[in-house]
Amino acid sequence: MGCHVRARRPLAATAAGLALAFGAWVSAEGAGEPSARPPERPNVILILTDDQGYGDLACLGNPVIQTPNLDALHADSVRLTDFHVDPTCSPTRAALMTGRYSGRVGVWHTIMGRSILREGETTMPEVFSRSGYATALFGKWHLGDNAPSRPQDRGFSRTLVHGGGGVGQTPDVWGNDYFDDTYLDDGRPRPTVGYCTDVWFDAALQFIGDQADAGRPFFCEIATNAPHAPYRVPERYEAMYANNPEVPNAAFYGMITNIDENVGRLLSVLDERGLSRETLVIFMTDNGTAAGVRGGVGFNAGMRGQKGSPYDGGHRVPCFLRWPGGGLSGGRDVDRLSAHLDLLPTLIDLCGLSPPEGVAFDGKSLAPLLRAEEADWPERVLVVESQRVENPIKYRQCAVMTERWRLVNGAELYDIEHDPGQSRDVADEHPEVVSVLRDQYERWWADVSREHGQVARIVLGSDRENPSRLTCHDWHEADPPWNQSMIRQGKVANGFWTVEVARDGLYEIELRRWPAEEPRPINDGPGPKAETARVSIAGVDLSRPVGPEDLAVLFRTPLPAGPARLQTWLEGPEGTRGAYFVSVRLVSD
Question: Where is each Sulfatase N-terminal domain found (predicted)?
Fold first, then answer.
């Protein structure tokens, strides 16, 4: 099947035309300012699925997958058909939440402390909250598990979430496996009953009902961890696709069909409560497909690449919006180039929110396009990238995009209008276009990279979180054990946390190889056996012996306020690794 690229008006094809259309690169200060239009107060529900690609929906051409409720929502929505995100989870979420490039706000990886949103960035729920909305998140956050970067620290007044980047990852509650798990309910562990996606939607429906009863507008994000690996779903959903030779992963497809059923439940409740007309529902995904294509089997809407790729299959995703009371319904395609970082300025415009002071958005309000008021819509250049390293590397896994062209990794050029599958590199035929787009990238890089040297810091000893529970998921300069299976296997690695000691005081620092929920001795399980535990922070370096039955090693030490690096070692003759789990508590100040 084709790539579902609609015919567009003629675009600049020459270097001179591109230069005239796009001009010099500048950060988009003021691009998100709302237009002069009477404010609206719709409720907003943002549905964000994980690792589901453009081709993982029946309405977008997949001949096998069953998504009738999403298909119906798509049919009645305004559809952004050339919509892009970063090729992986956390960077997409950072840009979505801030309206700014992920590299600018410090989130260019999914682990290694580079998935943590820096303090000081204004987020989407903060903007809604300041405008009188109730705000809630159900599911996946993946922008920090410690203060000051948890969802409840960044504008969400109601949260029910898992830890890390997925259920069963290292920061998540130990032993979670998608079924009957324990999740963090407003920061406190709470056992739940049922399948994870069902739990997120159940909680969202409760929240929506409560706000409707109170007559308060709400912003509700339902960010499913499905269909992210590991691929687990109630058997009846997997059975729908089992033994079908056209299905690359039956559980992956089943997880999407389960999401679809929950979307159907949500839409029915909106109808039943008379909320549909006044509610803006947005559906999108966070990157290209992870398991919808494998070994030549599956459907990717004719695109090249999957999750993590700089080709369109890695970052072009579905995004459609329905708001009957605001004129966004009935089914209409918008084929102009757009991206995740456009949604916050767009929502400020559509909902009549107070724009945050002093924030220079990289995104641009799409409200004129959504309202079909696009007469003078300008050409633009957008950049997405997949760094996934400690420090960003210029031209690494990146795409410079216009509506016609894609410059990949600074070298390959594709004419999307005539080659949507990106099968033919035409860089040699259009060197002038390559030159212009490289120049655009150079200007973008010079702008965004000014903030690459900053780090997000976990705050220790704050009133918001004491003790702080750190995990190796956030080690810098390491290949950390980022999921619980790696912890069980005893992966040998070490790194450090970037922290901020909130105030002078006496602190307890507890080192563990197993989490507190799994009371096993440090030397139980695979990996080198430790004879000594060591911790270093803020000029303090302490060691203690590890006994054969010790579950943890505890240090007490005064620490000065200020930024620091925290590192631990479990040392023995067989080798050394870091303590996977560390708890830091302010005892007295």
Answer: 42-352
Cα dihedral 123, 126, 131, 132 sign = positive
CA separation for the pair 536, 282 (Å, rounded): 46
- Is the pLDDT score of 13 beyond 80? no
Asked if residues 368 and 328 have their Cβ atoms less than 8 Å apart, the reply is no
Which pLDDT tens digit goes with each residue over 303-318?
999 999 999 999 999 9
Quote the CA–CA distance of 510 and 499 in Å, as a whole number: 16
Report the chain's terminal Cα–Cα distance, integer Å: 66
Q: Which of 89, 351, 398, 472 is catalytic?
A: 89
59 tagged catalytic: no
Q: Which fold has domain 384-451?
A: Arylsulfatase, C-terminal domain (3.30.1120)
**Other Cβ atoms within 10 Å of 49 Cβ, number:** 29
What is the CATH number assigned to the segment(s) 38-377? 3.40.720.10
Flag whether pLDDT at 112 surpasses 60.
yes
Q: What is the CATH architecture of 458-588?
A: Sandwich (2.60)
Domain with CATH 2.60.120 in the chain: 458-588
Q: How confident is the model at residue 14 (pLDDT cuts 50, 70, 90)?
A: low
Among residues 259, 264, 190, 254, the alpha carbon closest in space to that of 223 is found at: 259
Distance CA 75, CA 281 (A): 13
Q: What is the DSSP letter of 384?
A: E
Using the structure block, give the residue that is written with the tokens 């307890």. 508
CA distance 143 to 128: 19
Q: Which of these is catalytic: 74, 84, 109, 142?
A: 142
Q: Which of 85, 120, 125, 127 is nearest to 106 (CA)?
A: 120
> What residue spans in the chain does CATH classification 3.40.720.10 cover?
38-377
Half-sphere exposure of 452 (CA within 13 A, CB side): 17
Burial pattern 326-345, b for ≥16 Cβ within 10 A else e, equals: bebbeeeebbbbbbbbbbbb
Query: CB 365: neighbour CB atoms within 10 A?
Result: 24
Contact call for residues 42 and 326 (beta carbons, < 8 A): yes
SS3 category, 265: helix
351 is catalytic: no
**Residues whose CB is less than 8 angstroms from the CB of residue 3 and which lie 6 or more positions away in sequence, other chains included:** 301, 302, 303, 420, 421
| CA-CA-CA-CA dihedral for 468, 469, 470, 472, to nearest 10 | 180
Angle between helix 343-351 and 89-98 (nearest 10) = 30
Determine the average pLDDT of the residues in 359-379: 91
Instruction: Cite the residue boundaries of each domain of the chain with CATH code 3.30.1120.
Output: 384-451
Q: Tally Cβ neighbours within 10 Å of residue 429.
A: 11
Q: Is the pLDDT of residue 4 over 70?
A: no
Paired tokens of 266? 């949500």
DSSP character for 398? E
Q: What does the alpha-carbon distance between residue 400 and residue 436 come to, in Å, rounded to a whole number?
A: 11
For residue range 373-424, list pLDDT tens digits in order.
Answer: 866 888 999 999 999 999 999 999 999 999 999 999 999 999 999 999 999 9
